[in-house]
Amino acid sequence: MDRREFIKHIGGAAVATSVVLSACKNDEKEAPVVGNIIDGQGEMTYRINPNTGDKVSILGYGMMRLPVEEGGTLREHPNSPVDQELINQEIDYALEHGVNYFDTAPVYCKGMSEHATGIALARHPRNSYYIATKLSNFSPSTWSTEASKAMFENSLKELQTNYIDYLLLHSIGGDTNDLNSHELFNTRFVDNGILDWLVEQKNAGRIRNLGFSYHGDVDIFDMLLKWHDEGRYHWDFVQIELNYLDWKYADELNTRNTDAHYLYEELHRRGIPAVIMEPLLGGRLASLPDHIVKQLKEREPETPVARWAFRFAGTPEGILTVLSGMTYMEHLVQNVATYSPLRPITEEEDAFLMKIAEEIVELPLVPCTTCNYCMPCPYGLNIPVIFDFYNKCVTEGKIPVGNTEAREYQEARKRFLIGYVRNVPSLRQASHCIGCNQCVEHCPQKIDIPTQLHRIDDFVEQLKQM
Questions:
Q1: Which ranges constitute the DSSP H helices of 269-304?
Q2: What are the b/e assignments for 395-410, b being 16+ CB within 10 Å?
Q3: Coil, helix or strand for 45?
Q4: Residue 61 in contact with residue 101, Cβ under 8 Å?
Q5: For 326, which of 21, 279, 332, 367 could close a Cys bridge (C-beta 3.0–4.6 Å)?
Q6: What separation in angstroms does the CA of 461 have from each of 217, 403, 424?
Q7: Which three-class secondary structure state does DSSP give residue 377?
Q8: pLDDT, tens digit, for every residue of 103-137?
């Protein structure tokens, strides 16, 4: 199915299946979204989980970038405790405005996310929200049956609950230096019997929905869906990366990603609800090049740029919820407005966004989300800062281009080199990368980091020689 046929397929269905409800009550009548309602002037849009009848808010709260007491996130202040009072306030606001799906994991926020989420949510009735967490048994020390079971039991303790609504096998499709993706999957979930044990926990009512989050090797994705078809394991939901850039350019942006249209269509034809992550592609679709922002603003001057991406991610039929990691109250308020109610993307808007995606993919950006998983570099490079500086120069049109003898080019060259030194100290610049590849296995986006660093260094050296 090509994208034009697909949008015709979902255009009416998304409106018909989206519902305006409140909280998780199952006895209220469903009402269709009215397409011409102004953003934020209605009630939250909900989707129904066909497995359980859960009425889930189309906006899901990702608890992976929690605020800290020193301001900002752990990325800026890695030793600061989380700001529990602010987290409580934000969750209160979310629940009051219809958000009822909260996604966390044992590894988020240096292990503090589940605890903070549990404190905030426990102040509200348990039937007013859905908790999603993950079995994040990445480390070899957690691969044993006992250690993986202990991780699950600890999640229940930290979240102050006796059952998990949505439990995911975390980050399926990755690999390590020692194990390929299939070997790693078997080691984490099959050989130790933990997947069968999780099924037992589901049958006992301690897990209501069992699924997985997908990153990387599409062979693993296809294998798990084959198991679903054969009845070996039933997946109640699957979490995938979906946005208007990844829809058909994920493989071009990153050879280890899979185009979102394939992932979505494989789930949708099986009736497996999809949970969406990275609707903004790590913030990239909220911080677009100036010439693209201009095009979006010409269509809807008052609409925030990020809203286009959130609307796109929420439109397809079968999308259960769209996750957003919201640190600040203003982000929460804006995202609630976007989905209160959802204005589904029209066929004409879809064509426009596909054109925007084509323009973005032609930019020489590094697909880095500045997650910092690649750090620390053993040779002292500040990898995320290097990529962030370079990407900002590209998106803001500050890369020297054109006639190298022209005054404009020379001025842009000077600004770039000065900015590079100011943002990245000389001992932490790309020139010091020796290609050890230790960073590569930690990158969720599967970026060939040394290659990108060498490309940037070659560009910098070229500018210096002029």
A1: 290-299
A2: beeebbeeeeeeeebe
A3: strand
A4: yes
A5: 332
A6: 35, 18, 15
A7: coil
A8: 999 999 999 999 999 999 999 999 999 999 999 99
- Cβ-count burial of 37 within 10 angstroms (0-12 exposed, 13-18 middle, 19+ buried)? middle
Instruction: State the CATH number of the domain containing residue 254.
Output: 3.20.20.100
- Whether 356 and 432 share a structural domain: no
Measured distance CA(144)–CA(54) in Å, rounded: 33
Query: Do 397 and 335 reside in the same domain of the chain?
Result: no
Cβ-in-10-Å burial (0-12, 13-18, 19+) of 434 comes to exposed
Residue 437 CB coordination number (10 Å): 12
User: Per residue, what are the HEC states of 299-345?
Assistant: HCCCCCHHHHHHHHHHCCCCEEEEEEECCCHHHHHHHHHHCCCCCCC
Domain of residue 439, residue span: 383-464
Total number of domains constituting the chain = 2
Q: What are the pLDDT digits (tens) for 64-79?
A: 999 999 998 888 888 9
The radius of gyration of the chain from alpha carbons, rounded to an integer in Å, stands at 22
The CA–CA distances, whole Å, from 66 to 63, 114, 214, 247 equal 6, 11, 23, 28
pLDDT at position 250: 87
Q: Which pair of tokens denotes residue 87? A: 């987290």
Does 143 fall in a domain? Answer: yes
Beta strands 55-57 and 45-48 are antiparallel
Does some domain include residue 387?
yes
Tokens of 449: 């980091």
Rounded-to-integer distance, Cα 456 and Cα 384, Å: 13
Residue 226 burial (CB count, 10 A): 10
Q: Is residue 20 part of a domain?
A: yes
Whether residue 226 is found in the same domain as residue 107: yes
The reply to whether 74 and 182 lie within a common domain is: yes
> Quick one: average pLDDT of 253-279?
91
- The four Cα atoms 133, 129, 311, 243 give a dihedral, to 10 degrees, of 10
CA–CA gap between residue 419 and residue 270 (Å, rounded):
51
Residue 300 lies in a domain: yes
Question: Of the residues 362, 397, 427, which one is the last residue of a structural domain?
Answer: 362
Q: How far apart are CA 300 and CA 315, in angstroms?
A: 18
388 and 358 assigned to the same domain? no
- As given in the structure block, the two tokens for residue 45 are 């849009």
- pTM check: above 0.85: no
